[in-house]
Design goal:
nine-stranded mixed β-sheet; alpha/beta; 15 strands; Rossmann fold; 12 helices; Dihydrodipicolinate Reductase, domain 2; about 375 residues; binds nicotinamide-adenine-dinucleotide
Length: about 375
């Protein structure tokens, strides 16, 4: 599809017309929220959650009592009061005045915990990935469709102001027809203080647990799921480090989408600090966009890269995602930007990639979609 005939200036303004998430907040009802799993990610969500207008944190839960206590302290410091729990099912049974749950427990728990929370009618903000296995993604989708509450998934980069503006620019036709996405995620190794990150049975390996965010942004930019995946990867530097490691430390993926659109993604942990980092670029028939910086470069070689207008510039993506969650609950919006359907696709994509790497074969979308029950 060729772009509509708008000037660059029009297109930049169109990109800037993002939903006024921040301005809409003060008018609604208070939403009583429980944070479940307050480790690395959950405590970061909580730090931002306590400052979202209208979110009242009424409960915190972790199987590690000291983490739950520390979380309650964070709430107290922000002027609130949260009940402390170590068993979230007991919490759901006994503390009825909870409207929503923010769940950040490890990946292998998502399927059972997501469904348990949806079944008792709570609104759910669930961390990514949706699940580790194809059939489980489909089970969560069914539960979310039947649930009273809304479900939003932890693809918070969709709410990052720069990336959000860049994606809207692409979707408005700003770079013309999308041709290719190129991503790199090069850094040091995973944090050693979270042992389950190194166990592929618990995290699904690093495409599913880590690469998932950039792949989600590319699928969003292209606007549909890939047709097939191919890839290669392994563990070549951090062999058995830490002891018992079963996850890779590097891989490369190529994903083919309809109409010849391709994603090329390189992810490894060999990068000396600050050497190459992250890159998320989308190339189109009229020019290319850098999602991280929200700049675009027309194919006209003379022009400098152009910074897009970015609403809420500099605001944290996790804050924006939680603010959107609160707003979606108030308005009953069952199709958030990071919704369960897009999360299902964006979980199946790294599952395809991981299979392609492990089994050294091309993996078709049909295969995983059938297993998930959506084909
Ligand atoms: N969106 C992002 O950018 C992002 C970043 C990091 C992690 N994550 C996701 O967040 C989730 C948590 O990852 P993490 O890095 O915080 O791991 P973590 O191990 O630091 O934290 C998980 C917490 O869950 C607790 N927990 C485990 N079982 C529980 C249960 N039954 N009830 C209550 N608490 C329980 C653990 O004690 C721990 O405190 C994962 O799904 C991960 O993929 C998302």
């Amino acid at each position: 599809m060729e772009p509509v005939n708008l000037s660059r200036r029009d297109l930049i303004h169109l990109a800037a017309a993002a939903p006024a998430v921040l301005s809409a907040q003060n008018k609604g009802d208070v939403i009583r929220v429980a944070f479940v799993g307050v480790g690395n990610r959950g405590s970061f969500l909580l730090k931002h959650g306590v400052r979202v207008p209208g979110i009242q944190v009424v409960a915190v839960c972790d199987i590690l009592p000291e983490r739950a206590e520390a979380a309650a302290q964070v709430v107290a410091k922000a002027g609130g009061k949260a009940r402390v729990w170590n068993d979230f099912r007991k919490m759901l049974d006994e503390q009825k005045e909870i409207d929503a749950v923010v769940l950040a427990t490890p990946d292998w728990t998502h399927k059972d915990f997501d469904i348990a929370i949806l079944e008792v009618g709570k609104n759910l903000y669930a961390e990514k990935p949706l699940a580790l296995h194809t059939r489980d993604t489909g089970a969560i989708l069914q539960a979310a469709k039947q649930a009273k509450g809304i479900m939003q998934v932890g693809f918070q980069l969709r709410h990052d102001p720069n990336r959000n503006a860049a994606e809207k620019f692409i979707q408005s036709g700003g770079i013309g027809r999308v041709l290719m996405c190129h991503g790199i995620r090069h850094g040091g190794d995973l944090p050693r203080n979270i042992p389950w990150y190194f166990d592929k049975t618990k995290c699904g390996d690093i495409v599913i647990d880590q690469g998932i965010h950039i792949l989600d942004l590319f699928t969003w930019a292209i606007g549909t799921h890939p047709i097939r995946a191919m890839g290669s990867g392994g563990t070549d530097l951090f062999v058995d480090e830490p002891k018992g490691r079963t996850v890779m430390d590097n891989y490369s993926l190529i994903l083919e989408y309809p109409n010849g659109v391709r994603v090329n993604f390189s992810h490894h942990y060999f990068d000396p600090p600050g050497f190459s980092g992250d890159q998320e670029r989308v190339f189109g028939s009229n020019g290319s966009v850098d999602l991280v910086s929200a700049t675009w470069k027309p194919r006209d070689r003379k022009s400098e890269p152009i910074k897009l207008e970015v609403p809420n510039a500099g605001e944290d993506s996790t804050y924006m995602s939680l603010a959107a969650f609160a707003e979606n609950i108030r308005t009953g919006n069952r199709k958030p930007v990071n919704n369960v359907e897009s999360a299902l696709v964006s979980t199946l994509v790294p599952i395809m990639g991981t299979r392609a790497i492990y089994q050294k074969r091309i993996v078709e979308w049909e295969e995983v979609a059938k297993e998930a029950g959506i084909a």
